[in-house]
């Protein structure tokens, strides 16, 4: 809210093709006063929002599912402190100004309003997006629906409640739903632009988020609005929990029935690494089947990247951010549809490759199997990028492509015990920070998960097999996992439908910035994040004495390097009894005593500089 001067320059952000979609051409002689006069100018202004608001936003590091603890301070340990300033606060209010400006100029437009309907709808979507990002971070915040000036009352206004913010988001998304084009009518050259189905999918997400927050968290984080927090004021006509869940299911079903999107399923070409290529897809040289981004119909809301015009620029493949914890490894299902503690096809942990056998393709796509050969990346790292159609032995690099687990030093921070490869590439053309695969903010799999979760919540913990078949079981099929049915889990007292649908969401969306938000809206973040974080079973397994085949003078595991040692008793890792317990012998990465996430961490503190500038912004409870 600090940038209150009029925008003097509008950046062109065109979509006539991938290169034009990403290339920016500054119109340095066009001012705000004369700019919004033609439909083309409204289009250019609307296109600008995509680059302004969409970026690379992965997350989940330091969560209960992550073996990557290289974050200081660790959010998963509850170590948040009051910041002086905050990028989420600053950037989203800055970005909101542009959307408000377009909406205001549209009201003054002398031409046919139908000429600019989709661009106005785009502005309403992004205003909802900006308010949503602020809601996730801070709870209730000041609502801003107009361009501000130096004397605007909003600059010194108190916070709106989370319910008022959500209501405004719903208002904006209804405008977006009505005004955006159908995905089926958007030409290939403009894929990546928002559609009415995208707005419906996003609204379904927020309906589910807020319904479950109200059901499981309630007003615990609101404060009284007089001395602390944003209060609990609800606008007239605010929907009930049941109404929000019902609409979440309806909006999801509308997207499903539109046939605008489909799950990525190229098991015939990629086998058990099918999903790896969904998240590393660039041009036809980025995968062995020669597919391109045009073959991906799963991403609904996405940041579109391009090499060389717009790279991600975050050194993703080198860092491999998404390492699974012991808990996540055991949450992945077996091919018979059952978790490891109940499956007859699970092969245990005795050998390094045992737990990878007969497993969910989401595991084999995103976690490297010990001693299996994998291409490196770029021109030289780990032997260099993929040479499709060439055997590893014939690559001409004299490199041993086998993956050897790292259990010798916790100082590495990432990929201890397991190596996560979601959102990485084996493209020979991608050097450090050159990755340019698109990043999904919302994809079709989430719509199916939303439908299933809303259904089971409305059913009081029950869901029909038919509802499972049009949602969860489509995801399980492409993951090479047997369908989830009532008959499948009935014999097991520790399994229930709500827990299994939450499991599906956890393993499907890991690394996509959803885990912390899910744990909080379910009201179980304190419990789930309080357990010790462990990784590979080493005691009594092949890992304990295995020699490194790439360095025969060394063993794979060095016990003296890990100060926390290994688990010595059976340990529960979840509030849901259906998640496998951790047995003795697992290497400990972080002890439970370090993990102190609490209800005050459910929403972050308001930056101190904002309260200094506007004392009406009461701090959140507990800060």
Automatic annotation (TrEMBL):
All copies of domain SusD-like N-terminal, residue ranges: 85-208
Sequence ranges assigned to domain RagB/SusD in this UniProt record: 315-623
Pfam families: SusD-like_3, SusD_RagB
InterPro entries noted in UniProt: SusD-like_N (IPR033985), SusD_RagB_dom (IPR012944), TPR-like_helical_dom_sf (IPR011990)
RNA-binding among keywords: no
Compartments, as annotated in UniProt: Cell outer membrane
Signal peptide start and end residues: none
PROSITE patterns in UniProt: PROKAR_LIPOPROTEIN (PS51257)
Keywords: Cell outer membrane, Membrane, Signal
Family statement: Belongs to the SusD family.
Protein name: RagB/SusD family nutrient uptake outer membrane protein
Gene source species: Polaribacter sejongensis
């Amino acid at each position: 809210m600090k940038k209150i001067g009029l925008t003097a320059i509008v950046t062109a952000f065109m979509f006539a093709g991938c290169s034009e979609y990403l290339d920016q051409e500054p119109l340095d002689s066009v001012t705000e006063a004369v700019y919004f006069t033609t439909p083309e100018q409204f289009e250019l202004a609307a296109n600008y929002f995509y680059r302004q608001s969409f970026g690379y936003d992965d997350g989940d590091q330091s969560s209960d599912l992550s073996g990557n603890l290289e974050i200081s301070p660790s959010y998963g340990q509850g170590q948040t402190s009051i910041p002086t300033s905050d990028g989420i606060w600053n950037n989203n209010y800055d970005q909101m100004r542009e959307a408000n400006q377009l909406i205001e100029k549209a009201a003054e437009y002398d031409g046919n309003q139908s000429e600019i309907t989709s661009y106005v709808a785009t502005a309403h979507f992004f205003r909802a997006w900006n308010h949503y990002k602020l809601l996730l971070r801070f709870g209730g915040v000041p609502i801003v629906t107009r361009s501000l000036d130096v004397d605007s009352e909003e600059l010194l206004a108190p916070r709106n409640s989370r319910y008022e913010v959500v209501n405004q988001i719903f208002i904006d998304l209804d405008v977006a739903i009505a005004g955006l084009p159908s995905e089926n009518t958007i030409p290939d050259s403009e894929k990546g632009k928002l559609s009415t189905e995208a707005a419906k999918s996003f609204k379904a997400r927020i309906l589910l988020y807020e319904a479950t927050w109200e059901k499981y968290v309630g007003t615990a984080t609101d404060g009284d609005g007089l001395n602390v927090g944003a209060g609990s004021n609800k606008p007239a006509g605010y929907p009930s929990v049941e109404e929000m869940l019902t609409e979440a299911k309806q909006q999801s079903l509308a997207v499903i029935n539109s046939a605008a999107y489909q799950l990525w399923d190229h098991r015939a070409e990629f086998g058990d690494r099918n999903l790896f290529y969904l998240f590393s897809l660039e041009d036809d040289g980025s995968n062995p089947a020669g597919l391109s981004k045009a073959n991906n119909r799963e991403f609904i809301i996405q940041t579109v990247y391009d090499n060389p015009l717009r790279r991600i620029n975050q050194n993703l493949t080198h860092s491999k951010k998404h390492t699974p914890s012991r808990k996540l490894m055991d949450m992945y299902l077996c091919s018979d549809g059952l978790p490891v503690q109940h499956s007859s096809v699970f092969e245990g942990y005795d050998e390094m490759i045992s737990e990878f056998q007969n497993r969910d393709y989401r595991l084999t796509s995103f976690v490297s199997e010990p001693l299996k050969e994998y291409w490196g990346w770029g021109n030289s790292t780990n032997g260099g990028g993929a040479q499709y159609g060439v055997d590893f032995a014939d690559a001409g690099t004299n490199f041993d492509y086998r993956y050897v687990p790292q259990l010798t030093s916790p100082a590495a921070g990432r990929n201890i015990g397991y190596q996560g490869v979601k959102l990485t590439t084996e493209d020979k053309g991608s050097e450090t920070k050159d990755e340019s695969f698109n990043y999904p903010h919302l994809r079709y799999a989430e719509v199916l998960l939303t439908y299933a979760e809303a259904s089971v919540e409305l059913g009081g913990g029950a869901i029909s097999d038919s509802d499972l078949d049009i949602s969860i079981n489509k995801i399980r099929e492409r993951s090479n996992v047997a369908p989830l049915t009532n008959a499948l889990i009935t014999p097991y007292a520790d399994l229930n439908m709500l827990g299994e649908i939450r499991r599906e969401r956890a393993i499907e969306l890991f690394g996509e910035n959803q885990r912390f938000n899910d744990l909080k809206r379910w009201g179980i973040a304190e419990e789930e994040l309080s357990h010790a974080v462990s990784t590979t079973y080493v005691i009594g397994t092949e890992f304990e004495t295995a020699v490194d085949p790439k360095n025969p003078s060394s063993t794979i595991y060095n016990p003296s390097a890990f100060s926390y040692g290994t688990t010595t008793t059976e340990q529960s890792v979840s509030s849901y009894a259906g998640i496998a317990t951790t047995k003795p012998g697992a290497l400990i990465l972080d002890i439970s005593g370090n993990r102190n996430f609490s209800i005050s961490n459910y929403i972050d503190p308001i930056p101190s500089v904002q309260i200094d500038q506007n004392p009406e912004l009461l701090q959140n409870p507990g800060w």
